[in-house]
């Protein structure tokens, strides 16, 4: 009786008491009797003490950190979606020391076994000749890269290996997939830990879980020692920002202080790898390869693959240590190897296989194919080789039980023709772990990825990893879309080792270098546009703020609203102006335009598209910008107003948003000015900002004052311009009068001490130009220099009184018009000249020539 | 027979090439019926780096890296080769194709890798339903494997027109089956794909062919061309060549350069350039029997 009361009397706030694991399946946290396993208790005890607010608060903080750190699978997928692209569960997966020992042994053994297979496959191929691996399996795999044969002799080393584990209902671990091509999401594992420990450091300590830093330190040390230099230049070769793992590549690059490069940045000269910079070629000592091997040399591998430089294979044949992993390792990911692993392990290592792969049939073997074809309804068919990325996506799995008769017939034919390309697996059930959901814990199936790196000739396993939800509803392990990830904690019985920062490494022989660290054209281009877009966003916001604030009913006395309409029209294209509805009331006309500019998409000067552009370039520059700069600009991604998914409800609310936005950009600019190194990158960002500011201001002044207005109307326009150009205080402190055109022109056009004036921008552009390297095409009077000199001279020599004069008998200011027409025309041309010269070298165009056989005589 | 071969490839570029990497398969490989007497490779401008090596398939190959700006590139390969005709062969004495295919099915047993590696479909020789339907009639149960190959050779010659303008490198085998026109490499790929679709090894042979001028006409200099044909494997006999473009079994007038799974493995000259704008290629091949080569 008492026990029952105890059962009912459990505090309803304890989520673990209510956790209902399926008693028939193994669960990570509770045993078959529902009792929390000992290695979970320090965590559950503390967690149960939290009240609901504390738990929800932590979950919310975790979500916020993910957003702020920009952890995303596809950087550009999330621009206009407010759903979270990457989710981290509040609950980690916790492993006991005994369990860990088994997993660690299994991972190390696998890595050693695969390394042996790799060496043999790209060497003497005795495993194929003897049929220990049916040669049809790997010779038919497009990931087997023949040009690498012979290159790995005696040093065929697999540096990075990762395994995806699942557990069956009995609690036995199985390997679902093997990753031998790249670091396979190591960056995500690291980012998950960093973010998760922000909200759970107390729980982490209680669990006495192992830290990741020693593993990454060892990895860093190994990369340095591979490169053979203390001051090595190491680059992470990424397929680019559209690849789903790009976040991870950028994260790792920043963590290690490595360069992040794309194939187009690299050249192979005399069997060495170089990075092309604005100052010329700069040697790279080691490439951490995060691109598909088959795509990494268009000369000798896939002729349509440009993810690496032509000549890379030849360079690696001379020195296989130039890239890790070396090229050709993806062939080890072939799932058809599974059935042969136990014998291979026995034969090659003389050991029993610690943990097997998930039970599979390779359909290249007649008997296996026959069995599978006879039992299709309980099978799933997957490709034996799926390449890197996230395998197991549902679209890559065929489930005959869910297919039509015609589809099954096609599948049978396909298996008969290409059986060697497929594997089959039988329906099964998987273990669960608790997942944090609003309102309680839910039992969830998962896959866990563990990582190993070769350090000093021995494999070392990351004491942690990443676990992902899988969808097992139809009996197969599938990655659902929008699933959850979680941190993996490995508990220890030993005392926690002191925390070692990675930054201390590599400081043993510090070498001072300054300035020009070799800026790639691509990065220069991105920084130039970051400067332009950030400035454009600032300009649009100031203009909108000026316009909307004049709609305030308290300012009803404000007369000259046509000036505001004219100023806003500058930002609208011809078509957009045509699309405007004629409104009798000027207030309504202003509001209509303001809303159009604020929310509109696909417009050059729309605020939302401009912020999208800012986000895009910032994403491309992730590894070059400090975390603070990145986080500052992330503010624009966290509100539906900035992403165009919602409009401000009222004008005062719009003003609030604009104030906030201008402050955010000011913070960004201030931080950039304070923290960015004054190298070429800085020069390009500044040139971009200055070109944009000069062009915008010129355009506004030209539009408002080419025709003279009545005195009051002109004063209203001038005040507005001074305000948008943030120069109203300066003007008032200099002149006590109402604004008049000559004085305003002096301040906004000529005055080189006013950081908002056109003259100041031109002077600054000229200064930054002089700082740039003269290569690649030395030409003393090149187009962009001539342009800037010409503009500077005209502005310096301008006579503000002359400019303000109107023609005899009309209101037209011809000289003014001429100068501003030229400014408005030449500034975009200047931008184009810069692009042509520094970012868009025609000789960087990569082309493949592959003539067909000639005609028959 | 002894031949002198001259193979010139000349590229003209409309814009300077800043850097070029080329991969060439131009030096004839040796085999039991072919002896290489001399070979030279001239490249202008001079490559900054040249590396000669033996590729995965045992062919001599070279990579050339040119680091200086250039608007023209000449690759000139010259060789002297002796070719011997094969002994007469009774195609009907070869093993039944289905027995051969069964022997080569995946299993845990010893394999001859040099045979098995030509068994699997490759980039240019995929097994498609259309290809499968095309090839099926040639594989009656129990038919000797080399007779199947000869029947296919003849059928391709008869039903496919030689047309230099009909196809390009990217033309797929399904398209070829539809348009029924192409060049030697297309026909070679079709024959190879057909054999492989039925589990039989076949390899692509890149080379040259001695051509004879029409009766009473002088042979034009540079009128010869690179050629491609197929080698099919039969147990106890070994590799036997078939030329579907000319409906014959090559004797001593086919000069072998390289073996591969398909064209992509052994294309004579291929390159990756930085810059260069548009380009034009002139190719001139001369195959001259040594006895008459007395100019």
Textual characterization of the structure:
The complex is a heterodimer of chains A (857) and B (295). In chain A, β8 and β9 form a beta hairpin. In chain A, α8 crosses α10. Chain A is built from 30 helices and 21 strands. The termini of chain A are far apart. Chain A is of the alpha+beta class and 857 residues long. The radius of gyration of chain A is 32 Å and the shape is elongated. The N terminus of chain A is likely disordered. Chain B has 295 residues and is α+β, with helices and mostly antiparallel strands. In chain B, the strands form three sheets. In chain B, strands 1, 2, 3, 4, 5, 12 and 13 form a seven-stranded antiparallel beta sheet that branches. In chain B, strands 10-9-8-11 form a four-stranded antiparallel beta sheet. In chain B, α3 crosses α6. The radius of gyration of chain B is 20 Å and the shape is globular. The two termini of chain B are 18 Å apart. β21 of chain A pairs antiparallel with β12 of chain B.
Brief synopsis:
With 857 residues, chain A is an alpha+beta fold. Chain B has 295 residues and is α+β, with helices and mostly antiparallel strands. In chain B, 20% of the residues lie in helices and 38% in strands.
């Amino acid at each position: 009786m008492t026990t029952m009361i105890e059962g009912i009397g459990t505090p309803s706030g304890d989520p673990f008491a209510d956790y209902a694991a399926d008693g028939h399946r193994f669960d990570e946290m509770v045993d078959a009797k529902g009792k929390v396993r000992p290695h979970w208790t320090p965590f559950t005890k503390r967690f149960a003490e939290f009240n609901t607010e504390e738990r929800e608060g932590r979950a919310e903080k975790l979500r916020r950190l993910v957003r702020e750190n920009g952890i995303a699978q596809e950087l550009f997928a999330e621009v206009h979606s407010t759903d979270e692209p990457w989710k981290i569960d509040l609950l980690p997966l916790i492993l006991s020391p005994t369990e860990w020992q088994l997993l660690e042994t299994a991972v190390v053994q696998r890595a050693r076994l695969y390394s042996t297979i790799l060496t043999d496959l790209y060497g003497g191929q005795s495993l194929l000749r003897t049929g220990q691996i049916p040669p049809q399996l790997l010779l038919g795999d497009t990931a087997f890269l023949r040009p690498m044969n012979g290159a790995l002799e005696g040093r065929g080393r697999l540096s990075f290996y990762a395994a995806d584990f699942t557990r069956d209902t009995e609690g036995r671990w199985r390997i679902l997939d093997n990753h031998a091509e790249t670091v396979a999401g190591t960056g995500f594992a690291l980012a998950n830990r960093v973010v998760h420990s922000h909200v759970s450091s107390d729980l982490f300590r209680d669990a006495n879980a192992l830290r990741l830093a020693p593993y990454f330190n060892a990895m860093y040390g190994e990369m340095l020692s591979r490169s053979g230099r203390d001051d090595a230049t190491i680059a992470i070769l990424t397929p680019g920002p559209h690849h789903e793992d790009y976040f991870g590549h950028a994260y790792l690059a920043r963590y290690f202080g490595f360069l992040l490069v794309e194939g187009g940045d690299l050249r192979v000269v005399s069997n060495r790898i170089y990075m092309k910079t604005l100052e010329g070629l700069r040697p790279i000592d080691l490439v951490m390869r995060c691109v598909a091997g088959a795509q990494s040399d268009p000369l000798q591998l896939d002729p349509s693959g440009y993810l690496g430089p032509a000549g890379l294979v030849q360079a690696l044949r001379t020195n296989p240590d130039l890239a890790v992993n070396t090229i050709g390792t993806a062939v080890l990911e072939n799932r058809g190897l599974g059935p042969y692993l136990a014998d291979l392990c026995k034969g090659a290592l003389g050991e029993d296989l610690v943990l097997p792969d998930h039970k599979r049939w390779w359909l290249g073997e007649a008997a296996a194919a026959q069995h599978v074809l006879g039992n299709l309804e309980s099978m799933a068919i997957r490709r034996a080789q799926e390449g890197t990325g996230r395998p197991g996506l549902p679209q890559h799995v065929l489930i005959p039980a869910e297919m039509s008769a015609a589809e099954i017939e096609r599948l049978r034919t396909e298996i008969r023709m290409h059986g060697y390309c497929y594997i089959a697996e039988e329906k099964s059930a998987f273990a669960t772990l608790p997942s944090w959901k609003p309102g309680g814990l839910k039992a969830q199936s998962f896959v866990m990825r563990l990582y190993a790196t070769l350090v000093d000739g021995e494999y070392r396993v990351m004491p942690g990893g990443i676990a992902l939800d899988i969808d097992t509803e139809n009996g197969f392990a599938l990655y659902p879309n929008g699933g959850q990830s979680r941190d993996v904690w490995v508990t220890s019985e030993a005392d926690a080792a002191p925390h070692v920062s990675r930054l201390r490494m590599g400081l043993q022989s510090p070498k001072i270098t300054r300035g020009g660290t070799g800026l790639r054209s691509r990065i220069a281009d991105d920084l130039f546009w970051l400067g332009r877009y950030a400035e454009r966003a600032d300009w649009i916001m100031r203009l909108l703020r000026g316009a909307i604030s004049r709609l305030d009913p308290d300012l009803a006395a404000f007369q000259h609203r046509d000036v505001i309409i004219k100023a806003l029209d500058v930002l609208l294209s011809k078509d957009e102006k045509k699309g405007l509805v004629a409104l009798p009331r000027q207030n309504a006309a202003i509001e209509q335009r303001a809303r159009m500019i604020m929310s509109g998409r696909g417009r050059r000067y729309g605020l939302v598209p401009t912020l999208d552009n800012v986000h895009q370039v910032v994403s491309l520059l992730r590894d070059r910008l400090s975390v603070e700069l990145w986080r500052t600009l992330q503010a624009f991604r966290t509100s539906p107003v900035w992403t165009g998914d919602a409009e401000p409800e009222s004008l005062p609310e719009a003003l609030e948003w604009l104030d906030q936005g201008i402050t955010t950009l000011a913070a960004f600019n201030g931080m950039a000015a304070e923290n960015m190194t004054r190298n070429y990158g800085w020069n390009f960002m500044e040139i971009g900002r200055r070109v944009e500011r000069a062009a915008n201001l010129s355009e506004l002044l030209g539009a408002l004052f080419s025709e003279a207005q009545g005195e009051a109307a002109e004063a209203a326009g001038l005040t507005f311009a001074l305000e948008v150009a943030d120069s109203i205080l300066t003007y008032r402190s200099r002149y006590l009068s109402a604004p008049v055109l000559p004085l305003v022109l002096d301040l906004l056009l000529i005055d080189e001490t006013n950081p908002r004036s056109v003259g100041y921008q031109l002077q600054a552009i000229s200064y930054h130009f002089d700082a740039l390297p003269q290569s690649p095409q030395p030409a003393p009077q090149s187009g962009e220099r001539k342009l800037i000199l010409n503009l500077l001279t005209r502005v310096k020599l301008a006579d503000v009184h002359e400019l303000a004069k109107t023609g005899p008998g009309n209101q037209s200011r011809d000289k003014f018009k001429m100068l501003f027409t030229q400014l408005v025309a030449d500034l975009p041309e200047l931008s184009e000249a810069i692009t042509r010269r520094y970012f868009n070298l025609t000789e960087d165009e990569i082309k493949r020539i592959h003539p067909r056989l000639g005609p028959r005589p | 027979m002894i031949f002198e071969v001259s193979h010139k490839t000349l590229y003209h570029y409309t814009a300077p090439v800043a850097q070029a990497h080329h991969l060439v398969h131009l030096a004839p490989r040796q085999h039991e019926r072919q002896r290489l007497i001399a070979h030279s490779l001239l490249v202008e401008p001079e490559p900054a780096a040249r590396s000669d090596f033996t590729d995965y398939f045992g062919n001599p190959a070279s990579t050339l890296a040119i680091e200086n700006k250039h608007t023209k590139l000449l690759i000139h390969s010259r060789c002297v080769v002796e070719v011997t005709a094969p002994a007469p062969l009774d195609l009907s004495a070869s093993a039944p194709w289905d027995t051969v295919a069964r022997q080569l099915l995946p299993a845990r047993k010893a394999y001859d890798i040099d045979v098995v590696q030509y068994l699997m479909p490759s980039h240019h020789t995929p097994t498609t339903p259309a290809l499968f339907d095309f090839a099926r009639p040639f594989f009656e149960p129990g038919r000797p494997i080399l007779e199947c190959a000869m029947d296919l050779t003849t059928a391709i010659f008869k039903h496919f027109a030689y047309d230099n303008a009909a196809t390009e490198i990217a033309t797929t085998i399904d398209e070829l089956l539809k348009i029924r026109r192409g060049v030697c490499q297309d026909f070679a790929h079709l024959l190879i794909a057909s054999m492989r679709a039925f589990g039989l090894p076949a390899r692509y042979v890149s080379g040259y062919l001695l051509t004879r001028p029409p009766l009473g006409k002088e042979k034009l200099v540079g009128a010869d061309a690179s050629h491609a044909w197929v080698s099919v494997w039969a147990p106890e006999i070994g590799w036997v060549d078939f030329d579907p473009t000319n409906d014959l079994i090559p004797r001593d007038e086919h000069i072998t350069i390289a073996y591969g799974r398909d064209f992509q493995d052994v294309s004579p000259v291929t390159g990756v350039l930085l810059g260069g704008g548009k380009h034009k290629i002139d190719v001139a091949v001369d195959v001259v029997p040594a006895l008459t080569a007395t100019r």
